[in-house]
Specification:
Layout (H helix, E strand, L loop, with lengths): L6 H7 L8 H23 L9 E5 L5 E3 H17 L2 E6 L6 E2 L10 E9 L10 E9 L9 H4 L6 E9 L3 E6 L4 E7 L4 E6 L10 E3 L10 H11 L10 E2 L5 H11 L2 E4 L10 E2 H14 L3 E3 L16 E2 L1 E4 L1 H14 L7
Helix pairs in contact: 1-2, 2-3, 5-8
């Protein structure tokens, strides 16, 4: 145990970084960590228990819910409800936001937007899945928090992170003071600091996109894919195509190795498919804090003003130089409307 620093210890040490509500935010991050351990346990034993397959229901987006989707959603809502620091939970699996109905909800300072189980379509195939979360500080002062407290720009996030349930389970988060990664040690049941001060390489050689939708992509994205496939020694092309189909897994790999993840608009999803509040914004916050960049092709993701709870967005995110190259192609071939 000598030299090991747990997530709890690290959070307490870093409380000085918070200019307000130091204890509350620390406890909120702790609650998320506890819930993720419970979800990790169920993910790891999914093949031995009756929690694989469809739950027989759909979420607000009309997507079929897996049994583990429902389980993860319940666990995070339960943990955040009992902790007392959260007044609203907004999740991908609920039609409306969930107001925490407790005696302290009037005083609770935080809103959590969460995708409880990203990449859940991969569950039955034993492929890495994850959890993505965003933490906002409520703006209203009196009474119960409202939808207006949830619909904040990504620049207003006070913390964001993800958990990846893979060959090892990792929790990666930021509070705006860099990015740190913690690996779950099952022998002691604790997340331990394993990747301090994570930085994404400025450039990379991996691009991640569902090329099966190529014919439906904007022209700028098509041009970039062709650019990535051309042989050029000076720029280390052709790049390697790697697409898992789990946003957490794809971005986690690119964060470590350098690369770009793209989920552009298509004919079927003209506004994009990924959710702004609990997928795009938290990942953008993390990658920017790690030295990367996140855009929808023209606009910085975290400066987009949300107008609805389940608002969708396109996203191009990863190593700065790779994202900027895509932006060049998008400006030339696929002009994107400004968010301003």
């Amino acid at each position: 145990m000598k030299g090991i620093k747990t997530l709890g210890q690290f959070i307490i040490e870093k409380q000085a970084d918070f200019s307000y509500a130091k204890g509350e935010l620390s406890r909120l991050l702790r609650d998320i960590g506890i819930a993720s351990k419970i979800v990790n346990r169920e993910v790891n034993k999914a093949g031995l228990a009756d929690i694989l397959g469809d739950a027989g229901s759909t979420n607000i987006q009309g997507e079929g819910q897996k049994k583990l989707d429902v389980f993860a959603n319940e666990q995070f809502i339960s943990a955040l409800s009992s902790g007392g620091e959260c007044c609203i939970v907004a999740t991908e699996e609920e039609d409306d936001f969930v107001r925490i109905d407790s005696a302290v909800s009037h005083e609770a300072k935080y809103i959590v937007c969460i995708d409880p189980l990203d990449g859940s379509s991969n569950i039955d195939c034993n492929v890495a899945v994850g959890t993505i979360f965003s933490i906002l500080r409520r703006k209203s002062v009196d009474g119960l928090a409202t939808l207006a407290d949830v619909l904040q720009k990504g620049t207003e996030q006070v913390a964001a992170g993800y958990v990846i349930y893979g060959s090892s389970t990792m929790l990666v988060y930021t509070t705006g003071k860099g990015v740190n990664g913690f690996t779950l040690d099952p022998s002691i049941g604790e997340f331990c600091l394993s990747h301090p001060d994570m930085k994404i390489p400025e450039n990379g050689t991996i691009y991640s996109i569902n090329e099966g939708n190529y014919v439906h992509f904007p022209e700028g994205i098509k041009k970039y894919i062709k650019y990535a496939q051309v042989e050029d020694t000076a720029t280390k092309r052709p790049y390697t195509s790697r697409y898992i189909g789990s946003m957490v897994a794809d971005i986690h790999r690119n964060l470590i190795k350098g690369g770009i993840y793209m989920y552009p608009t298509t004919a079927a999803s003209p506004n994009g498919k990924l959710r702004l509040l609990y997928e795009c914004n938290p990942m953008a916050f993390i990658l920017e804090q790690a030295g990367g960049k996140a855009t929808d092709g023209l606009n910085r993701i975290m400066e987009i003003t949300p107008t609805e709870l389940h608002q969708r967005s396109s996203i191009i995110i990863g190593s700065t130089k790779m994202v900027e190259k895509v932006e060049e192609f998008m400006r030339e071939f696929s002009p994107v409307k400004s968010c301003n």
